Amino acid sequence: MMLHLLLTCSTAAIPTIHVDQFGWRPDDTKVAIFADPQKGQNAGAAFNPSSAFEVRDAKDDRVVFRGRLSVWQNGAVSDLTGDRVWHADFSPVRTSGTYFVTDPKSGARSFKFRIGEDVFADVLVDAARTFYYQRAGTPITKQFGGAWNHPGGHLGKGQDKEAQYSQDGKGLGGSRDVSGGWYDAGDPNKYVPFLETTMFNLLWAYDRNPQAFGDATNIPESGNGTPDILDECRWELEWLLKMQDRDGGVFNRNGNRTYSAPPGPWSVDTQERFYTGKTTWATAIAAASFAHAARTFQPFDRAFAGTMRAAAERAWGYLEKHPKMEPSDGKDGDKLAAADGGCSANGDVRHRIYAAAELFKTTADGKYSTFVSRNAPDIANTNENGMHPLSNHVVDALNHMSLTQALFVYAGTPEANATVVRDFKLAVHNSAEQIRLATGGKDDPYLCYTLPDHYCWGSNQGKGYWARILVMAADLNVEPSRSAEYLSIAEGYVHYLHGRNALSWCYLTNMAKDGASRSVMRPYHKWFGTMPVGSDGQRPAPAPGFLVGGPNKAFSVSWIAPPFGEPPMKAYKDWDLAWNTDRNANEASWEITEPAIYYQASYISIAACFATKAKFHP
Questions:
Q1: Which of 19, 475, 535, 578 is deepest in the core (most CB within 10 A)?
Q2: DSSP symbol at 299
């Protein structure tokens, strides 16, 4: 049955009491946010709560807890949100059930939520299943995709099974099967460089908490004895093998020349498809991904794990023969649609360090450790925008991502260089402490601290990156007495994405079936964002679980307000238009509502810390 857009989810009035719409585990710190909006798109919803609040059982309206509100920053109006804020801590409520928080004076109430050990389990299943919908080169069937199905993207003549090599905007033949893998975002391109964080975060999510992932999430490989999240990673890794040449080098990307396909799922696009030249940075990222996968898959498929290790070592051999960045200008020299997947000279070195760290952990070969210990402290050649964990003594959430991952992996590997490990742990410690001390402070009314400038394009991905600093701090035990607190603060970023934010948006698409009352429903996406309006006047809903980009205070189209001109956390609108025919102008909704596999992996890596295993529930 086709699910249609529920207007009550996307256009209902913004509540003034904000909660995680899925809920909390019994032992969690539980805080609802009361807000009196002074600025931004909901500024007309004035709210003057009483000093007390109540938690009520949703089944019978019974009061189960009464508490007093804690005013944030002495009643100041937050520049970040435009709100005056109070915190309602109801952590003593531990009994499983469904509840809501209410203001007894006005009767205002939050959305319903659950308390239970499994509150995030089904949410994580749906979030992970989005990778199935992003699969290229295979039918998305009704059996596994439900209403969201199509006969397979880019399977036609001249497409991914026989893609042409492209250089300088010209197809040069060289037919190659590069079918499979995941579409990168709302567009039909596939990039090796953009796996930098995607593959690490997904494999790390499983490594860290395998109990969060089951083998019954209704994808084609379900029930094969391998957790479905790893089956999904394997789908991408097998495409990555196709992108590797015989000499170990890896082609940079695969995609379309234009965005001229008609509306509809990936299968309606009949354009020719291309792949672009080998780059050292794509090769390094592939080497890191292969090496990590070799470890994670070892208990499930030793032959595949061996294939991964061999591919990683071949890629490293290519890098040894090409010690400088190639192409030297950091571009792949082609003219496909969307991003070029380029790199800087410093980025190329950082990616090599990442590959070496993963290979060292997989093989225990000292040459890889030597590469890390010699190159990671080379600040001039490995910093990004002046940021470097071994010089600034902090881990930056949005810079030097592959170096952060490299040093985290390296710090957990026996026989690693003690000085490098010590210095990285110090940086992680300092960053975790900065976040801890800033949480709930003058720049953090909603208990999910980031720098105000990080409410930028892809801010929801950034929330995951801030949270993973805290998780890494706990995993590396940099401050043993604080580890539990770091994880508790990290969970606050999950609560933000689930609705405890200034607009009460659950930033995962179409999650009503899992309990969300206000899910985003209009992602910018080639498939879901172009579906025709039905006879009932409604556009079909997107598949559940896609994380959209989120608030972006730098949104570029001034005549669309909101999101333009809003306080940073409110710079969001739920819409999917690209081209406005009345104005003959771009609406650029992709700057706000487009999902992407790296956004998704960032979310999964953090949500999995707090989830238990679940099965798919249609």
A1: 19
A2: T
In this structure, which amino acid lies at residue 531?
M
How many residues are given for the chain? 618
491 touches 610 (CB < 8 A): yes
Q: What is the DSSP letter of 465?
A: H
Question: How many angstroms separate the CA atoms of 397 and 400, rounded?
Answer: 8
Task: Concatenate the DSSP letters of all residues of 316-341 into one string.
Answer: HHHHHH--S-SSTTSS-----SS---
Whether residue 293 contacts residue 286, with contact meaning beta carbons closer than 8 Å, is answered with no
| DSSP classification of residue 135 | B
Q: In Å, what is the CA distance from 413 to each residue of 363, 407, 477?
A: 11, 10, 14
**CA-CA distances (angstroms) from residue 330 to 207, 261, 324, 344, 526?**
33, 29, 11, 5, 28
Q: Which of 344, 355, 411, 416 is nearest to 380 (CA)?
A: 344
What are the two backbone dihedrals, phi and then psi, of residue 250, each rounded to the nearest 5 degrees?
-120, 130
Give the helix/strand (H/E) hosting 391.
Answer: helix 389-392
Q: What's the Cα-to-Cα distance from 154 to each of 131, 145, 338, rounded to whole Å?
A: 17, 18, 17
Q: What is the mean pLDDT of each run of 10 residues along the chain (618 residues)?
A: 34 85 98 97 92 98 98 98 98 98 96 98 98 98 97 97 93 93 96 98 98 97 98 98 98 94 92 96 99 98 98 98 96 86 97 99 98 98 98 96 98 98 98 98 97 97 98 98 98 98 98 97 91 76 97 97 98 92 92 98 98 88
Burial of 380 (0-12, 13-18, 19+ CB in 10 A): exposed
> What burial class does residue 264 get, using C-beta atoms within 10 Å of its C-beta: 0-12 exposed, 13-18 middle, 19+ buried?
middle
Token duo for residue 33: 């946010």
Question: pTM score > 0.90 for this model?
Answer: yes
Residue-level pLDDT at 530 = 74
Q: Which helix (H) or strand (E) holds 297?
A: helix 280-297
The reported pLDDT for the residue numbered 578 is 83
Residue 265: name the closest of 539, 527, 3, 577 by CA.
527
Q: How many CB atoms lie within 10 A of CB 567?
A: 25
Contact 20, 499 (CB under 8 A): yes
Nearest to 590 by CA among 502, 517, 526, 539: 526
Cβ atoms of 204 and 214 closer than 8 Å: no
Q: Parallel, antiparallel, or unpaired for β 23-24 and 506-509?
A: unpaired
Taking every pair of C-alpha atoms in the chain, what is the biggest distance, in angstroms?
72
